[in-house]
Specification:
Layout (H helix, E strand, L loop, with lengths): L3 E5 L3 H12 L3 E6 L6 H8 L5 E2 L3 H6 L5 H10 L2 H10 L4 E3 L4 E4 L5 H13 L3 E4 L12 E3 L15 H7 L4 E7 L3 E3 L3 H7 L7 E5 L2 E5 L2 E3 L2 E3 L1 H5 L1 H5 L4 E4 L6 H10 L7 H7 L4 H10 L8 H8 L2 E3 L1 E4 L7 E6 L16 E3 L13 H23 L2
Parallel strand pairs: 1-2, 1-7, 2-6, 7-18
Antiparallel strand pairs: 3-5, 4-5, 8-17, 9-13, 9-16, 10-11, 10-14, 12-13, 14-15
Helix pairs in contact: 1-6, 1-15, 4-15, 8-13, 11-14
The structure holds flavin-adenine dinucleotide.
Length: about 375
């Protein structure tokens, strides 16, 4: 008799688990609570589907922090190159962007998802929508790939966590990850600079510094460097922005002194000194519009503008969530130690990663590992 595997959740993790289990000889059914599959993936594709990253594998693996030990074997078994080959096999050839991020040529997920579900149909995978998992059953080999708790309107809503907790499985509470921070900007700053990036900045929180271009939003700051400092910001560390990271404070002060002309307004003077209009607005906000007039004081401030962060943006608008099934609740294939025959994979497990393709890569790799392991287990437990 052919072994059977049930997959619940049809995001990138579950779809890959279904493909891997079917490829390993299992008869596979995949269900999702939504009316269609891969909706988070489609949403991700709207801003450019960053599938993985082209940096050396050792550097890549270092991005996962505490989750690395659990993820490393899965990523080594199904690494970034395998993801690129797999996408190419679905007609979505990839390219490496200037930052090393890997995207399908079409940038979006639509074509890839269509080809993927067609491939699954060809492998005989039964695909059902509108079915919700509401707790553990003893239905044989099962891969749960229920996602995190952000963007509940498209993907997972995290309601599975209560069922898992009830069953006594150790969990870590959800927290927003790769989320913006909340800042109560002044009305004048917002009026002119909402949507504007702070170019060539260095952001520091909790002793860690990240270079990049955060963007000013109506409610605070968004973008790569903010997401990268997520762990520090989540722990309540303050945020400072260095507006001139390539100059030290003395060099900046000297440049300001050099460019000072008596007829210039303070803003004109600072702009001649290399600060952009948005930089000047940030300095004004930070000082309650009482900018120091002395070059050394301005330079010191521009090197460490304090940003009054009121916390992280709400979880439902985060790119991903930290938390979920505790890492010590699973074995080295992702199977729940307390429920042999049930695997968990993808974002529902409590690893965390920055943006840059690391999220989807880890989802695909752990989905692949779980699918293969579930097919093998099903064959051994007819
Ligand atoms: C705006 C945005 C942009 C992003 N861009 C990128 C990017 O460019 N690169 C990157 O690496 N990552 C990106 N991400 C993150 C990435 O999309 C997610 O990490 C990834 O989709 C998680 O995959 P998953 O399969 O684990 O979960 P999901 O994709 O969320 O899929 C989980 C599925 O499970 C289903 N489900 C949940 N609960 C149940 C239940 N009880 N019963 C049945 N079905 C259920 C859901 O309906 C959903 O279809 C982005 C995320 C967002 C929101």
């Amino acid at each position: 008799m052919q072994p059977t595997v049930a997959v619940v959740g049809a995001g990138p993790t579950g779809l890959m688990a279904a493909e891997a289990a079917a490829g390993a000889g299992a008869e596979v059914t995949i269900i999702d609570q939504r009316r269609s599959f891969g909706r988070t993936l489609l949403l991700a594709g709207r801003s450019g589907l960053n599938l993985t990253h082209a940096e050396p594998l050792e550097v890549f693996l270092g991005r996962y922090g505490d989750g690395r030990a659990m993820l490393e074997p899965a990523i080594r078994a199904f690494p970034p190159d395998a993801v690129r080959a797999w996408a190419g096999g679905l007609g979505a050839d990839t390219f490496v962007g200037s930052s090393g991020r890997v995207f399908p040529a079409a940038m979006r997920a639509t074509g890839l998802l269509r080809a993927w579900t067609a491939r699954l149909a060809g492998l005989g995978v039964a695909m059902r929508t509108g079915e919700t998992w509401a707790g553990f059953t003893d239905d044989g080999a099962t891969v749960l790939a229920l996602g995190g708790a952000s963007w509940p309107s498209v993907g997972g809503d995290g309601s599975w966590l209560a069922h898992v907790e009830t069953a006594g499985i150790p969990v870590v509470p959800f927290a927003a990850s790769n989320a913006g921070v909340l800042v109560a900007w002044s009305a004048p700053l917002l009026e002119r600079f909402e949507g504007v990036p702070i170019k060539n900045a260095a952001l520091t929180a909790g002793g860690r510094t990240v270079r990049g271009e955060p963007t000013i939003t109506a409610t605070g700051l968004e973008g790569g460097p903010i997401y990268a400092l997520g762990p520090e910001l989540r722990s309540g560390h303050g945020l400072e922005i260095d507006l001139q990271p390539d100059l030290d404070a003395d060099a900046l002060a000297a440049r300001l002194v050099d460019r000072r002309r008596t007829k210039d307004s303070v803003s004109t003077w600072l702009r001649k000194g290399g600060l952009s209009p948005v930089d000047v607005a940030l300095l004004r906000d930070a000082t309650g519009n009482r900018l120091p007039t002395e070059a050394t004081a301005i330079a010191g401030l521009a090197k460490a503008v304090p940003i009054p962060v009121d916390g992280l943006a709400p979880i439902d608008r985060a790119i991903s969530t930290a938390g979920g099934i505790a890492l010590d609740a699973i074995d080295d294939t992702g199977m729940l130690l307390d429920r042999p025959g049930t695997w968990v994979a993808g974002e529902m497990v409590a690893w965390d990663a920055p943006t840059g393709g690391y999220l989807i890569q880890a989802c695909l790799s752990t989905g692949h590992r779980a699918g293969v392991a579930a097919a093998r287990w099903a064959a051994e437990h007819p």
